[in-house]
């Protein structure tokens, strides 16, 4: 069923932090008065992350889970989540709160003003490996058509993508 916003969260052995992550995101999104779904993609966790997702879905149907058969990596988990996202816009976040959910309202505001892609940019990438930096920069270059953002206030590596763009990214 279509909604305004899908949030895709790849997770690998995140059982300890996931309840806080989901509660935080749910509170922020509900305050924005948009219909939403949160898709948590379990990337082959060994700590019962999938059972937690199932139990959470039983009480909160907006939170859905996809369980991968083994660990394929963060990019594959994101791909799976994007494929199943039904929102008009999609936000990707990390399960460990590295991408601050508190920026969701600001990302939504840019979207409401017509931005098709809002990409948060880490202000300090010194702790990232060369491969992480190159991957991030490569994705940003692929998304430059229709690109609109103001990076002064967005300080994470999260992204809001209009769902029609996700189809193009998935085909790339």
Word description of this protein:
This protein has 172 residues and is of the alpha/beta class. It has helices at residues 18-31, 49-59, 74-84, 104-112, 130-142, 163-171; strands at residues 3-11, 36-42, 63-67, 87-92, 117-119, 159-162. It has one domain (3-171): Spore Coat Polysaccharide Biosynthesis Protein SpsA, Chain A. It has 6 helices and 6 strands; from the N terminus they run E-H-E-H-E-H-E-H-E-H-E-H. Helix 2 links the parallel strand 2 (36-42) and strand 3. The chain starts with a strand and ends with a helix. 36% of the residues are buried. Residues 139-157 have low confidence and may be disordered.
Compile the SSE list and pairings.
Elements: E1 3-11, H1 18-31, E2 36-42, H2 49-59, E3 63-67, H3 74-84, E4 87-92, H4 104-112, E5 117-119, H5 130-142, E6 159-162, H6 163-171
Parallel strand pairs: 1-2, 1-4, 2-3
Antiparallel strand pairs: 4-6, 5-6
């Amino acid at each position: 069923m279509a909604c305004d916003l899908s949030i895709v969260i790849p997770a690998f052995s995140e059982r300890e932090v996931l309840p806080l992550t989901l509660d935080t995101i749910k509170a922020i999104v509900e305050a924005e008065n948009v219909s939403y779904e949160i898709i948590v993609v379990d990337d082959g966790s060994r700590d019962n992350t999938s059972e937690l997702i199932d139990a959470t879905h039983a009480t909160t149907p907006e939170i859905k889970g996809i369980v991968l058969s083994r660990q394929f990596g963060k990019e594959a988990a994101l791909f799976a989540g994007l494929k199943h996202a039904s929102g008009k816009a999609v936000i990707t976040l990390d399960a460990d709160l590295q991408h601050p959910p508190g920026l969701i309202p600001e990302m939504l505001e840019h979207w409401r003003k017509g931005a098709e892609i809002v990409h948060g940019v880490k202000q300090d990438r010194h702790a990232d490996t060369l491969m992480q930096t190159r991957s991030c920069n490569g994705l940003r270059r692929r998304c430059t058509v229709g690109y609109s953002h103001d990076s002064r206030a967005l300080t994470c590596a999260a992204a809001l993508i209009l769902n029609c763009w996700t189809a193009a990214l998935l085909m790339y």
